Amino acid sequence: MSSDDARPVTPGSLADVIEVLAGRRLAVLTGAGVSTDSGIPDYRGPDSPPRTPMTFQQFMGDEAFRRHYWARNHVGWRHVGRTLPNAGHRALAELERRGVVGGLITQNVDLLHQAAGSRHVIDLHGRYDRVVCLDCGTVISRAELADRLDALNPGFVESVGAVGDVEIAPDADAVIEQTSHFVVAACAVCGGVLKPDIVYFGELVPRERVERAYAMVDAADALLVAGSSLTVQSGLRFVRHAARTGKPVVVVNRGATRGDRYAAVALDGGTSETLTELAQELPAP
């Protein structure tokens, strides 16, 4: 992080946020902080424990890493599937319904925006409910893979305890220790390597997806960032792009972010409460 990115910004108020955004059509960029109130932890929130996520290079380069990942994911993905949208997700869906939000770019893979009713969503980092073969490109549902993994590993989930008893991470991963005996499923079509349809650390977001996200920001009058520390370039680039093209940026997050220096207003606060207030206060453009 450069010293410029870390430059302190005078915190704003909800009234400041409303003043900047009122009457403008918004693009919204969301991160893990939007889903914490649904029970999905944030990687980088101020109260988050240290995490060392698996990189794409590790997943591809070592069969033991892949086995460890799939064992943990096999426990954790069920938790994400049972979570429900919170007030922040519902507020963004309402703002879209009223024409205030034109589209939403999310760094989350949990599909909670769609579950809340948002329709124009770009899943920047993919989605937890799909699996892709890296050799032949076949895509299957995570539920279908779960059935195969259950058959290959009878009793495994029960052996590590209930999902509520293990630490769940935002990518549907779960922290468990004993994975050496876990059997990984290969692609049923070609026998290739299966990977969640999720962009890993060290992996590039597909270019077509990035271009659609830039277009969404360009079509808006302002960019609202909610629940993202903007630590990684995949999200920060849209903040820089909006600022460079003269569009006001508002950041709502618990704690400082790398995008604060580009923001007209940076509000240190919870997304559920703030987005609910915005849904009540912002008029249609």
List keywords for this structure.
285 residues; Rossmann fold; SIR2/SIRT2 'Small Domain'; 11 strands; six-stranded parallel sheet; 35% helix; 10 helices; three-stranded antiparallel sheet
**Structural class by secondary-structure content:** alpha/beta
Note the beta-strand portion. Answer: 15-25%
Portion in helices:
25-40%
Q: What is the total tally of β strands?
A: 11
Strand sequence of the main sheet, in spatial order? 3-2-1-9-10-11
N-to-C span: 36 Å
What kind of assembly state do the chains in view correspond to?
A: single chain
By CATH, the superfamily of the largest domain comes out as: TPP-binding domain
Return the domain count: 2
**Mean of the pLDDT scores?**
88
CATH topology of the largest domain: Rossmann fold
